[in-house]
Specification:
The structure holds 2 protein chains of 2 kinds.
Chain A lengths: L2 E5 L2 E5 L4 E8 L5 E7 L5 E7 L5 E3 L5 E5 L4 E6 L8 E8 L8 E2 L3 E6 L1
Parallel strand pairs in A: 2-11
Antiparallel strand pairs in A: 1-3, 3-8, 4-5, 4-9, 6-7, 7-8, 9-10, 9-11
Chain B lengths: L4 E3 L2 E4 L5 E6 L6 E7 L5 E8 L2 E5 L7 E4 L6 E5 L8 E8 L8 E2 L3 E5 L1
Parallel strand pairs in B: 2-11
Antiparallel strand pairs in B: 1-3, 3-8, 4-5, 4-9, 5-6, 7-8, 9-10, 9-11
Chain lengths: ~110, ~110
């Protein structure tokens, strides 16, 4: 069975500071990993995904994530936070074998302080 | 850009009433999903649907829930007799094929049971 753990339900950073949102996964097979963002009153938007190619994945809005198999981690980073980054971020895992759907973490709410 | 659309955006219903949440997946997609997100909690998988039948469902998806693809375009989630604890945001998602492609999510329907 797959699972995702997101450390920290709420992260607050200053505008211009580094953003680091943590995600650890558990999977019995090589996983596909995703980060989704949810802006207030909106749906889930894919930020980036890891699908067994390059371990450093670049996404939209300046975000990137690095797959570290030894640490079973897929942390999301952005060098410089912007006010518009304030949102809920969800890490998700899937092996896409059979009918296994995406399994989401509990989410991390990012606040950006001016 | 193709998108998954959900209607209504917000539905208020009385406990015990039936509700139908509607989704129009992306037209050439083959796999369809419903997820829900209770306020402040994680996004939870409900059901996946492929080839006009349920391919997987979670323990949340009990006999009160059903899904249907009545006309080849709409994908509906019916809750037969709503309970207070059904209040949540319900997300529909669709996927072209079961590999590493992106699952596209709708904007969600916020269901409030009173």
């Amino acid at each position: 069975a797959q699972s995702v753990t997101q450390l920290g339900s709420h992260v607050s950073v200053s505008e211009g500071a580094l953003v680091l949102l943590r995600c650890n996964y558990s999977s019995s097979v090589p996983p596909y990993l995703f980060w989704y963002v949810q802006y207030p009153n909106q749906g889930l938007q894919l930020l980036l995904k890891y699908t067994s190619a390059a371990t450093l994945v670049k996404g939209i809005n300046g975000f990137e994530a690095e797959f570290k198999k030894s640490e079973t981690s897929f942390h999301l980073t952005k060098p410089s936070a912007h006010m518009s980054d304030a949102a809920e971020y969800f890490c998700a895992v899937s092996d896409f074998s059979g009918n296994t759907p995406l399994v989401f973490g509990k989410g991390t709410r990012l606040s950006v302080i001016a | 850009e193709p998108e998954v659309t959900q209607t209504p955006s917000h539905q208020v219903t009385q406990m015990g009433q039936e509700v139908i949440l509607r989704c129009v997946p992306i037209s050439n997609h083959l796999y369809f999903y419903w997820y829900r997100q209770i306020l402040g909690q994680k996004v939870e998988f409900l059901v996946s649907f492929y080839n006009n039948e349920i391919s997987e469902k979670s323990e949340i998806f009990d006999d009160q829930f059903s899904v249907e693809r009545p006309d080849g375009s709409n994908f509906t989630l019916k809750i037969r007799s709503t309970k207070l604890e059904d209040s949540a945001m319900y997300f529909c998602a669709s996927l072209y094929q079961r590999d590493n492609t992106e699952a596209f999510f709708g904007q969600g329907t916020r269901l409030t049971v009173v």
